């Protein structure tokens, strides 16, 4: 069931969104070649708890799937061909030229915020830099369609059209989602689709929109044996950006904007 958030609930979601964005701001200041992904995770967890929140991802497991090992970390840190759900480790060292996608969720005051950014480490290949920039553009084009009266797949089509116009592939088996008191709520928000289809968007819907775009021909992410980390089928680089938004009339409200641009 898709829930419509009240203004009281939206005010609470602004706070979880603020902390989520500030975690990613912190990561952006600290991330560098030579760090381990576990160091990033430790920084993030400490910041979240110092700000009265709880990591949304830590010990998360999909409902109805008892065979999946709960997620063991605060962040998902995915490097190069890893699409999403990269597990932080003391053995995984970030290298010059990597692209590092960091996904963060914060639970505070009963509501979740969820956001992701892809960071470029030092000198990155120009083709990969373009992928990162286009993926961010895909996110903003999708958000521009998240207004009351539109259809859900207007968001999806905007993401897909921009990615394919640049020769990139959309990862089809990883999608965005509704969000609120639960990290993952209805409806799923795919990154591909046909305009003017899907449920009608109503003011107060809360969505996590998250394009995952690959340089190669991969249309699906393939999970490794650890249940979690998902990589491109062909080993090509992948980028990931995400915002939590509220559907409004005329223009969506972004709950996880960075710094002084925050709503």
Label the overall shape.
Answer: globular
One letter per element, helices H and strands E, the order comes to HHEEEEEHHEEEEEEEEEE
Q: Helicity range of the residues? A: 25-40%
If classified by CATH, what would the architecture be? Alpha-Beta Complex
- Please indicate the count of domains: 1
How many distinct beta strands? 15
Given the helix and strand composition, which structural class is it? alpha+beta
Which superfamily, in CATH terms, is the homologous superfamily?
Creatinase/methionine aminopeptidase superfamily
Tell me what the structure shows:
This protein is 27% helix and 24% strand. It has 263 residues and is of the alpha+beta class. It has one domain (7-255): Creatine Amidinohydrolase, CATH 3.90.230.10. The strands form 4 sheets. The protein has a 5-stranded antiparallel β-sheet. Strands 1, 2, 4 and 5 form a 4-stranded antiparallel β-sheet that branches. A hairpin with a 6-residue loop joins strand 11 (221-223) and strand 12. Helix 1 (7-30) packs antiparallel against helix 2 and helix 3 (126-144) runs antiparallel to helix 4. The longest helix has 24 residues, at 7-30. The radius of gyration is 17 Å and the shape is globular. The two termini are 28 Å apart. The model has no long low-confidence stretch (mean pLDDT 95).
Describe the structure in brief.
The chain has about 260 residues and is α+β, with helices and mostly antiparallel strands. The protein contains 4 helices and 15 strands.
